[in-house]
Amino acid sequence: SSGINAEYGGGWVMLQNIHLTRKWLHTLEKLLDRLTVEYESQNKEGEDNTATQKGSSKFRLFLSSEPSPDIPAGLLQKCMKLTNEPPQGLKENLKRAVSLFSEEVWESGAHAHHLVEFKPILFSLCVYHSLVLERRKFGPQGWNKIYPFSRGDLQVCGKLLLSRVEASGPHSSNTISWDELRFLVGEIMYGGHITDIWDRRLNATYLQQFIKEDILSLGASFYPGFGVPNNVPFDRLLTYIDENMPVESPTAFGMHSSAELGYRTEISETLLRDLLDMRPKYLTTSSGLTLQEKVKVVLDDILERLPENFSLESITDRLDDKTPVANVFLPECNRMNFLIDRVRSSLSQLDYSLKGNISMSDNLENLMLSLCNDQVPEIWRKVAYPSTKSLGSWIVDLLARVTQLDTWSKTLLPPKVVWLSGFFNPQAYLTAIMQTTARKNGWALDNMVLQTEVTKKTSVDEIDAPAKEGCYITGFYMEGARWDIAGGAIENHHGTVFKDLYPAMPILLIRASNTNTQEYEAFYQCPVYLNQQRADYVFTANLKTKQPPSVWTLSGVSLLMEQPE
User: For position 565, what pLDDT does the model report?
Assistant: First the structure.
C-alpha cells in the first residue's frame, strides 16, 4: 500500500501473484477506490489544481495472478485484462515443446557419436511432454490429480539426454542406457511432481512407449498415424508436425474414443451448471410455482420417504458374537442414523422457516436453494458418504443403503450378495473378509491380499447361497472399457456408438489369500474408486486381460462404485 501511494504521482507499480494475498485484496480494492476519488476530485473540468495535485495520469498499476475466485469483482472491473492461455490441443503443445530448444541444441549432437539417436529421442521427449500436459483435459480418467508439469521439466530432460549421449560417444564403450533415461525422466523430473501411485504407473507406461530403442528404427511411430521424423532438419520440424500429425483423438493418448465423449459431456455439464448458478435465485420456476412452493413440495416428499432410525440397543442385545462382519454393520447403522437425523432435522427447520415460525438463516437459505436446484445440500454432504449424484438420485441411493442395513438388522446375517457400494466405509468390509479367513486358517493378517474373480452372474437372483469362501459383492461400473462376459476378460467398447459409457460389472467373488498364492500374470491391476472423481481409492481388483495390461493403463480403466449420471 505504501508503495502504491509513493508512486501515485506518476510512477509504475507491479504486483505479482496477487492470488496469494487474498485477505489483502479487499484492502487493495478500497485503496484504488480512494485514489480514484481523489484524482477525479482534483481534476474537475475547468479547475486548475496543478499546485495541489497529488495523482498523475501517468500512474500505472500492473497486477499478475493465476485464475482465482478470490479476486474481488470490483477490482477486476477496474482493470484492462490480458490473458496468457496455454496451448490448446496436442499439436500446439508439441509445437511449443519443440520450439523450447534452439537449433544449436537440436544440432548439438553433431559432434557426438550418437547424433542419429539424439534427435529422435529429443523429439520423442517433446511428444511425451505434450501428451502428459494435454491428457489433463480428460479429467480423472486422464490423471487422478492435476500436476504442475512445466517446460522447465522438458528443458532439463533435454540437457540430461545430451549428457547421456555425450557419455556414450565414439571414445567411450558405453551405450545409451534406456532404463537410466526412463528413471531420470519418470522418477526424478516428471515423477517428482506425481504423488498418486496409479499416476506413477501411467507415467512409467508412457515412458516405456516413448523412451526405447525401437523409436530409432526406420518406420517407427509414436502412435498410429504419426511417425518418428528421420533426418528432418530443425527448420522443417514445425512443418513436419503440421503436415504429418493426424487430427487429435483419444487414440493418440492410448485411450479409447469413448473418452472423447466423456470429455465433451463434462464440458457441456460444466457450462450448464455455470448457467444455472448465474440465473436469479428467486424467480418463478418453470412449473409455475414460486421457489418456496417448489421447495415445500420437495421437502415434504423427502420427509415422507425418510425411514426410522435403527435401534442399535436392540441389535446389540440380539448379537451372540460380534464377528468381523457384525463389527462392520453396527458402525454403518450408527452412521446412517446420524445422517438421517441430520436430514430430518434440517428439513424440519426449513419447514418452520417457510411457515414463518423462525427466521431464515444462511444455512437454511443454502439448503432451500440446493433443494430447488436438485443438488445435495452441503450440510448433508459433510456427514454423508462421497457422492456425485443429484438430489433425486441421492435420495434413492440413500433408501437403497438403508434397505441393505435393515435386512441385516433383522437377520443379523450378511446378505448372500453384498452391495459393497452401499457402505460408508467399504474398506472395512473387505478387511472383515480377510479377518474371517485369517482366523479360519490361522494366517497372519499382514500377509494377506484380496483376490478377485469375475463371475458370469449379472443379477443377485442368480446367486443361490452365500460364497463358501470370501463373499459375493456387487455395485461396480467400469470406466474406459467393458467386461466381456463370454470371453471372461476386459475388452474395448463396441464400435464407436456408445449406449453405456459405464457398463455394469457382473457379480464379483472376493477371496482372501496369502501373498504367496497371488498370481499376477495375464491380469490387469485395476484400481477401484468410490466415484468418478477418483479421490477415494478402495482396493485393487485383478481382472483378466487378453491384451497387455499397459493397454488398459493408458486407457485409464478403473472400476467405480457409483454409476455416473
Answer: 80
Report CA dihedral (264, 270, 273, 277) to the nearest 10 degrees: -150
Q: In angstroms, rounded to a whole number, what is the distance separating the alpha carbons of residues 99 and 26?
A: 40
pLDDT for 6 equals 57
552: CB partners within 8 A, 6+ apart: 480, 481, 490, 524, 526, 545
Q: 362-372 vs 326-354: helix axis angle to the nearest 10?
A: 100
The H or E element that residue 531 is part of is none
List Cβ<8 Å contacts ≥24 apart for 85-88.
86/133
Burial class (CB in 10 A: 0-12, 13-18, 19+), 377: buried
**All three cell numbers of 273:** 451448471
Average pLDDT, the chain: 86
106's CB contacts (< 8 A; 6+ apart) are 119, 122, 234, 237
Q: Number of helices and strands (H, E) in the chain?
A: 19, 14
Residues constituting the chain: 565
> Which one-letter DSSP state was computed for residue 445?
G
pLDDT at residue 175 above 90? no
Report the DSSP pairing between strands 226-227 and 221-223: antiparallel
pLDDT level of residue 110 (50, 70, 90 thresholds): very low
- The pTM for the full model equals 0.84
> Using alpha carbons only, how large is the chain's radius of gyration in Å?
30
pLDDT for the residue numbered 407: 93
Q: Is the pLDDT of residue 497 over 60?
A: no
CB contact at 8 A, 456 and 506: yes
pLDDT band at 288 (very low <50, low <70, confident <90, very high): low
Backbone φ and ψ of 130, nearest 5°:
-65, -40
Please report the pLDDT score of residue 51 as a whole number: 43
What lies within 8 Å, CB to CB, of 222 at 6+ separation is: 124, 127, 209, 210, 215, 228
- Using CA atoms, how far apart are residues 405 and 413, in angstroms rounded to an integer? 11
- Residue 4: pLDDT band with limits 50, 70, 90: low
- Residue 136's region, left for phi above 0, alpha for psi from -120 to 50, else beta, is alpha
Dist. CA 152–CA 15, nearest whole Å: 24
